[in-house]
Write a structure and sequence with these properties.
The structure is a single chain. The chain is mostly helical. The chain has one domain. The protein is built from 3 helices and no strands. Helix 1 packs across helix 2 and helix 2 packs antiparallel against helix 3.
């Protein structure tokens, strides 16, 4: 919360740089969203074709995707 207010005040001082940073952030998060979707689709496909023995590793790969997405959103 405190970090956000500091960011917004800095934003008012340098709107252009902030805009660029925001756009870059949005693009990165979109890319991450697409990667997560691909990962989920792959996981679902694999779950349909592979024996349940492999489910744990698939679940881990999905978890990895989510962890990566969260890393970008920080």
């Amino acid at each position: 919360m405190l970090k956000m207010s500091a960011m917004s005040s800095r934003c008012q001082m340098r709107p252009m740089r902030c805009q660029v940073r925001l756009m870059r952030y949005q693009i990165r998060s979109m890319r991450c969203q697409i990667r997560l979707m691909r990962c989920q689709i792959r996981t679902m496909r694999s779950m349909a074709t592979l024996p349940s023995k492999r489910f744990k590793s698939l679940h881990q790969s999905l978890h990895y995707c989510k962890a990566n997405r969260n890393k970008h959103l920080d």
